[in-house]
């Protein structure tokens, strides 16, 4: 399995970088994992709705440039589907059975994802109604993907 995590912005905090590296290392036993960072748009504090849309569009173009036609794309979005870890693992396993070996997970910037990215996605997933920092979401996503593979392979995980 090939997994790509495309995220807007650069991860700067050392502790988050270390955590992400740890989970991508663990995932290496199950899949080839690539973390791709696309530049975020600098924005002033007070943005109009039109400016917000322009920023999401520019970031969206950068994201879409990193996605290949044959890849199965999950967009992380608050309005996405809430899944248990077991249900998420089941969906990943089903995609593998169907021959879909290239998965992409997209994490937007602080304003979210553009309509074009949402339209390109095959599925949308949510980690709940709460808002999380998009930098932290990379670690949370990597941990959940790792947990999925432990579930798929009937291997124990910590209690």
Automatic annotation (TrEMBL):
SUPFAM superfamilies in the cross-refs: alpha/beta knot (SSF75217)
Keywords attached to this entry: Cytoplasm, Methyltransferase, rRNA processing, S-adenosyl-L-methionine, Transferase
Gene Ontology terms, MF aspect: rRNA (pseudouridine-N3-)-methyltransferase activity
Keyword Transferase applies: yes
Binding-site positions, S-adenosyl-L-methionine: 76, 108, 127-132
Gene3D superfamilies: 3.40.1280.10
Swiss-Prot/TrEMBL catalytic activity: pseudouridine(1915) in 23S rRNA + S-adenosyl-L-methionine = N(3)-methylpseudouridine(1915) in 23S rRNA + S-adenosyl-L-homocysteine + H(+)
Family membership: Belongs to the RNA methyltransferase RlmH family.
Quaternary state and interactors: Homodimer.
Purpose of the protein: Specifically methylates the pseudouridine at position 1915 (m3Psi1915) in 23S rRNA.
Record NCBIfam families: PRK00103.1-3, tRNA_RlmH_YbeA
Protein name: Ribosomal RNA large subunit methyltransferase H
UniProt organism field: Enterococcus columbae DSM 7374 = ATCC 51263
Gene: rlmH
